Description:
With 465 residues, this protein is of the alpha+beta class. It has helices at 5-9, 117-122, 131-153, 196-201, 212-222, 258-279, 281-290, 295-304, 312-321, 338-348, 399-408, 417-424, 437-445; strands at residues 18-30, 35-41, 49-54, 72-81, 89-100, 157-158, 164-165, 206-207, 224-232, 245-254, 308-311, 353-359, 375-383, 387-394, 430-436.
Amino acid sequence: SSASVREILSGRVAAGTAVTVQGWIKTRRDSKAGLSFLAVSDGSCQDNIQVVAPNTLDNYDTEVLKLTSGCAVRCSGKLVASQGKGQGMEIEGAKVEVVGWVDDPETYPIQPKPHTMEFLREVAHLRPRTNTFGAVARIRHTIAQAIHRYFHEREFFWVNTPIVTASDCEGAGQMFRVSTLDMLNLPRTDKGGIDWSKDFFGKEAYLTVSGQLAVEGYCLALSKVYTFGPTFRAENSNTTRHLAEFWMIEPEIAFADLNDDANLAEDFLKYIFNAVLNERGDDMKFIADRVEKSAITRLEKFISAPFERIDYTQAIDILKKAPKKFDYPVEWGNDLQTEHERYLAEEHIGRPVVVMNYPEQIKSFYMRLNDDEKTVAAMDVLAPGIGEIIGGSQREERLDYLDRRIQQFGLNPDSYQWYRDFRRYGTVPHAGFGLGFERLVVYVCGLTNIRDAIPYPRTPGHAEF
Ligand code: 4AD
Ligand code: MG
């Protein structure tokens, strides 16, 4: 019967059983004794299975000896304990069927040798065949599953908020406009210059930067909800931490304040890291051996230490007293830059920090104004090694305050009537946060560039594949 390499190597198939594996050749080695050793991967786990093909096979000379890295094969034989050390099991190849050849093996981009991450980004469609990107893909999957499980077990409901929207959640003007090419079947409302997106939706429409505003409506009915979906930002920052298309997880809780929000963020992150260590131990070990030495120990440290919580104002004090020279000035009222965030989390405190209560003018319009009227109930979770990983806040639940902030930020109140309704009908204190999924993957996998944390990265100048 057909089995995955993971099933076989984890001991779920008994020795002596006849098995079939299907996968791709990593390497082929031929012995003088007339045996070829094929390392076959099916991506189910980090390890390959060794298939031993004898020269008595009908297609030994015509096919087996021509197999190169990347060829697809179906191998059937008896599962036996391996003679060599290392691998526990191997397949005595009774049959090796070639399912797909590699055209031109010399120029096949994924050779069995180390490649740079830069090179692999240029062949993002083939990079999942490498050990590193296989591991990242499996870890990314495990994190996503753990996220859904975490919320499901705590009676949060997953809400699918729209990708096309008219509201700019962050009010930062970083939205991609949606338009359409084929308008033949649509009524044209504009006789002059045709505004395609207006023609379709009746107003300007954009790709969402966050599902938060929409999910607040579900929070104020179902109490505990979250989103998990793609978000888009036209920020022209070509950095190792920003993508134009990324996935975000946004829980939102009713009858909750900023402390509840910070508690949720801490409990949630620790749960996810625990799940990855428990469920992807083999891939995490590979990451620790080959990508980032401290990958496992820093997650363990993260799980065992309580997060530090400080006010923005305290953070500014710490930064002002720092023995270090920063590129960006440290001044109460300025937003924290990555260098400041990393100094706080890595050098000063040495563990994750929640910075709370930021100046109201540098944060979004929907955040709740504190009694001092100078700060809002916002928080950022800063992690050593990456900086901001989570941004969240208690929302302004008072209509008059919200209206003032909409005005102060120069937003069009007409676009937010529906959002104002939440404050008109049964308003309650509520809070939530956004976690950038790829920032989390970068952190867990010890990557240095966010372009390696998503299968097909979109950044300024890049939308290939
Ligand atoms: O801090 P942000 O902008 O917060 C929001 O969008 C809120 N509406 C979230 C909420 O309260 N529901 O973004 C949240 C997180 C950041 O902390 C970061 O991890 C990630 O999203 N993020 C990005 N990740 C990759 N590329 C980008 N361009 C990102 N921008 C934000
Ligand atoms: Mg933020």
